[in-house]
Amino acid sequence: MAKAFKYGLKGITGYLEPAERDLLRSLINDVISMLQPEERAGQDPLAALIGLDMDVAEPSDRAVKRLLPNVMKDDGAASLEFRQLTERSLRETKIGALRAAALDLDKDEIVLSPDGARHWSMALNDVRLVLAERLDIQDEEDAEHVHLMQDWSQAEDVESYLALVYNFATWLQESLVQAMLQSLDTRR
Amino acid sequence: MTISVAPGPDTQEGTRTGTAESTDSLTAPDIPWNLVIWNDPVNLMSYVSYVFQSYFGYSESKANKLMMEVHKKGRSIVSSGSKEQVERHAVAMHGFGLWATVEKASGGPGGNSGKSGGPGQGRGKRG
Question: B5 to chain A: which residues are within 8 Å by CB?
Answer without folding.
Answer: 147, 167, 170-171, 174
